[in-house]
Amino acid sequence: MLQLQNKQELQTSKNLLAFSAGGDSTALFFLLQENDIKFDIAIVDYGLREQSKEEVKYAKNLAKQYNIKCFTHNAENIHTNFEANARKIRYDFFEDLINKYKYENLLTAHHLGDRFEWMLMQFCKGAGCAELSGMKAKDKRSNYTLYRPLLHLDKQELLSYLKDENIHYFEDKSNNESKYKRNDFRHKHTKPLLEKYLQGIRKSFEYIDKDVAQLIKDIEIKSINQLAYFKGSTDKRSNIYAIDKYLKTQGHIISANERELLNEKTSVVLGRKYIVAKVSEYILIAPYVKMAVMDKKFKEKMRLLKIEPKLRAYLFSDLEAVALLSLLLQ
Fold first, then answer.
1. Tens digits of per-residue pLDDT, 20-50?
2. Residue 69 CB partners (closer than 8 Å, separation 6+)
3. What whole-number distance in Å separates Cα of residue 219 and Cα of residue 13?
């Protein structure tokens, strides 16, 4: 069931599996075992459901049974914007483990339904071909590669596999709660369409991936501390795609309006959290800091480097980033 190309690459790498004990990640756990792919697992307990304690226990038991490491994290209470904040907590935890233990790859159990769900949500709020393509089976990040080995498979195919193999997994009842936007899309739109048009939807994504590969230039984003940067392309669509891709890793999803602003302006504040600015041939992305008391020497340095004023407050607290920009922009 795993794609052959991913299988060969993963067999020779150090892998971390994002595990939840649900059907998707449990199916991936056992498919990786069947394909002789070595990995450790990491699970987050958000403390919202009594069942979550059993899920963590199940993860630890599996790890012990298969002689692998199991990392656990108890998240602090999330009071607002649960989906976005939970995602940030989750990926911060995974990336801390990746940095500490030198994992090369992060494996997630996103499947075709997740990708289709994302596509419909983007389509309904306004997006182009690149954004509609959404998730990729292989996604290079700054210090690791994110793999989604199940992206070509439907949820029902995974559940059938678990049933045939008599593999235990947990069902998260919160997945049925309509207060979450993704759940609403899943039950009203994604699931019914996949049940009727699975093969057509699968084939459409194959075509979309080929089209996006032709339309969008692959851009490498580098970072130092909290400053991300890349050499801008003459194609604005490729630049915006790269910005969007990076900010997703930070828990910020660009809105249709923000995408328009990025297309029109050289400096944009996004969600009052990030500043994106074009300086010379580079695109810079940093936390947005409203005010800072800066000395005259620093202000003059920023003026000579032609740094956007709204970016300066952050840079005043990050001398390493300033030193790097001095080399890049001289």
1. 999 999 999 999 999 999 999 999 999 888 8
2. 40, 41, 63
3. 24
**3-class state of residue 14 by DSSP:** coil
Quick one: CA dihedral 277, 83, 144, 141, positive or negative? negative
Q: Report d(CA 292, CA 313) in Å as an integer.
A: 5
pTM: 0.83
% of the chain exceeding 90 in pLDDT: 68
Beta-strand relationship, 40-45 and 70-74: parallel
HSE, CB side, 13 Å, CA atoms: give it for residue 316: 19
Pair 149, 136: CB distance under 8 Å: no
Domain ranges for the chain:
4-212, 222-329
Residues in the chain: 330
Q: Maximum Cα–Cα distance for the chain, whole Å?
A: 70
Which 3 state secondary structure label does DSSP give 1?
coil
SS3 content of the chain, % helix, strand, coil (to 5): 50, 15, 30
Count the neighbouring beta carbons within 10 Å of the beta carbon of residue 51: 14
> Which architecture characterizes domain 4-212 according to CATH?
3-Layer(aba) Sandwich (3.40)
Take residue 174 and report the two structure tokens written for it.
């919160």
- Cβ neighbours, 10 Å, residue 86: 16
Rounded Cα distance, 264 and 228, in Å:
21
